[in-house]
Specification:
It contains twelve helices and twelve strands. It is an alpha+beta fold. The strands form three sheets. Strands 6, 7, 8, 9, 10 and 12 form a six-stranded antiparallel beta sheet that branches. Strand 1 and strand 2 form a beta hairpin. The protein is elongated.
């Protein structure tokens, strides 16, 4: 699915948030226990659990052994403290640990088997501690999250860009040539695409000038500087500064520039030697085939992403609801942790929460659609797609929501965008906002003298 975070843990489903309670006991997960839903009222379910005495005894032994191993007591070697002493000092702690382990495991297994989404991850329960040697019986009441019936999932309009394969291949090959470009010194005025070598120092600065270069047409150091060096020849000198129309803005210092050279671009010839250097293939024909395959693959991937992104944006807009807060917080923490920042700022936390809210809503909407359309996932499908680290429920979520997305796409109105003409292409440039700061030529006696001696030709 689009934008699915890969967190690499079975504690997470496809969408990156933890199972409602994700603390699992390690080791044997055989079903020693039984549960029964004893009460259902609105979105609340009360469940009676019974754990076998055999497993309760095993947990008592396991936790007691761990305490004994870590316990330092005069007169006893580590791990050899008598059971009676441990129980006297830590009996209630051991019972609480056993109860907590059992309840967490039961909750995790229950949610996986019943396929529930909780409204919050703090179910109600009476605190009853287990007794060693007896079965453990207790009740927990869960509040389930009711996902609103999804709307706006049919007939979503999606426009995909057309593929001009021949043009895309030529542009890709041309980009290879640009990466292998050379520049040769020329004795003529500079033109579009040329590399202009410069020295610069601010007014009154007597230190060594700063050396740099600009390529005309790329606006590398600010608006309108390219115009100042277009048509210049080696030796041309001029003064300029960045200017702003706002009279209250402080003006930057004037800089003096000297053109020390002009170089024109030289692209490699399109031949077999170029093909070998560019992609390690034997000839130009093989290069074109390789580029064509790459272009098709990239286009197909982009179309898949565009379709899914269009669906996600549409269903999020059509289904405004607040998802369970704990799910959002779990995913937000995961996003922030993946950034690796020790102290993320407010803007980072806000953006992470907004992203998490949308991702959880997306998951729940697709889940609700799958339920509404009675989309079924077989055990065979789960087994075939499941990795050793995943739980069956996370695979069920992934496959079910994937089928829900496919169903929406099957019902979508998918059309191809019409190619844009030259007029439209030009309008994009006009719509781009101009920089408020731009380079302006500073006319003075020194500049005029430099112009007379070095010269600058304009086409």
């Amino acid at each position: 699915m689009a934008d699915a975070p890969d967190l690499g843990s079975g504690k997470y489903n496809l969408w990156g948030f933890k199972s409602p309670l994700s603390h699992h006991l390690k080791g044997n997960r055989e079903d020693f226990y039984m549960y029964d839903i004893v009460k259902s009222e609105d979105n609340r379910k009360t469940v009676h659990f019974t754990e076998s005495a055999e497993r309760i005894n095993g947990l008592f032994r396991k936790i007691r052994k761990q305490i004994s191993k870590d316990l330092e007591m005069p007169g006893f070697r580590p791990g050899k403290v008598p059971k009676s002493i441990i129980d006297k000092q830590y009996g209630n702690i051991i019972k609480a640990e056993v109860a907590d382990s059992v309840r967490q495991k039961f909750t995790s297994d229950l949610l996986e088997k019943e396929d529930w989404i909780l409204d919050d991850n703090d179910p109600e329960s009476k605190i009853e501690l287990p007794v060693e040697g007896d079965s453990y019986n207790f009740e927990m009441t869960f509040s389930l999250f009711e996902i609103p019936e999804p709307e706006g999932t049919e007939g979503i309009s999606i426009e995909i860009p057309p593929l001009d394969l021949e043009d895309a291949v030529e542009k890709t090959i041309e980009s290879f040539r640009e990466k292998m470009i050379n520049f040769e010194t020329v004795d003529r005025p500079s033109e579009d695409g040329d590399l202009v070598l410069l020295e610069a120092r601010s007014a009154g600065n007597t230190e060594e000038p700063q050396k740099f270069n600009v390529r005309i047409g790329e606006s590398q150091i600010g608006e309108d500087f390219d115009q100042l060096v277009t048509g210049a020849i080696t030796g041309f000198e001029f003064a300029a500064r960045m200017d702003n129309e706002d009279p209250e803005e402080e003006k930057p210092p004037v800089h003096r520039f000297r053109v020390t050279g002009v170089k024109c671009p030289v692209l490699p010839d399109l031949n077999d030697e170029f093909a070998e250097k560019a992609a390690g293939v034997e000839n130009l024909e093989e290069l074109r085939k390789k580029v064509e395959e790459s272009v098709r693959t990239r286009y197909d991937q982009e179309v898949v992403y565009l379709k899914e992104r269009s669906v996600i944006d549409s269903i999020l807009a059509s289904n405004p609801f607040d998802p369970p807060e704990y799910m959002v917080e779990n995913l937000k923490k995961d996003y922030v942790n993946r950034l690796g920042e020790e102290d993320p700022g407010e803007e980072t936390l806000k953006a992470a929460k907004e992203l998490a809210q949308n991702k959880v809503r997306e998951f729940l909407i697709l889940r609700a659609l799958a339920e509404k359309e009675d989309i079924q996932i077989t055990d065979e499908e789960i087994d075939a797609d499941k990795s050793p680290e995943e739980s069956a429920s996370s695979v069920l979520d992934r496959l079910r929501n994937k089928k829900a997305m496919e169903l929406i796409l099957d019902r979508a109105d998918i059309t191809e965008k019409k190619p844009r003409g030259n007029t439209d292409a030009g309008s994009d440039k006009e719509d781009m906002p101009d920089s408020s700061w731009r380079w302006v030529l500073i006319e003075d006696d020194n500049q005029e003298a430099a112009g007379e001696t070095a010269g600058k030709e304009k086409s």
